[in-house]
Amino acid sequence: MTDEVKRHNTRKSVWMVIRNEVYDVTSFVDEHPGGEDPMLDAAGQDATIAFEDIGHSEDAKAMLKKYKIGSLAPGEGCCKMRAKLWRSSSSSRLKYALLALGVAVLLGIAYKKYASS
Q1: pTM for the full predicted model
Q2: By residue range, what is the domain housing residue 102?
Q3: What is the pLDDT of residues 44-63, one digit of tens each?
Q4: Which residue of 1, 25, 58, 96 has the fewest C-beta atoms within 10 A of its own C-beta?
Q5: Where a domain ends, among 33, 54, 71?
Q6: What is each CA distance from 53 to 16, 44, 89, 93, in whole angstroms?
């Protein structure tokens, strides 16, 4: 990611990268339905994963156009950081999926035991 984007990480200037596009969302921080904290946490960084994981609506995605100020050149983004975050996110999802599967199996066994009594 460019040093220029990284410098815009304060309440007075909030830039972020989403899908290799650079957005100046400073004027939107006060209007953000999720509050200012998520925006300020992502300021000056690649916020693609955070933006996508929240499950923003199509309207929210369309709003981005209004704040776009540029694009990163191919290979200029934080691909390594993004990949690392994705791996840790995928790992967490796998843990929760396995936990849910385990709970479902235990509930099935308990139900079967209860039903046969």
Answers
A1: 0.63
A2: 78-117
A3: 999 998 888 888 888 988 99
A4: 58
A5: 71
A6: 16, 18, 9, 12
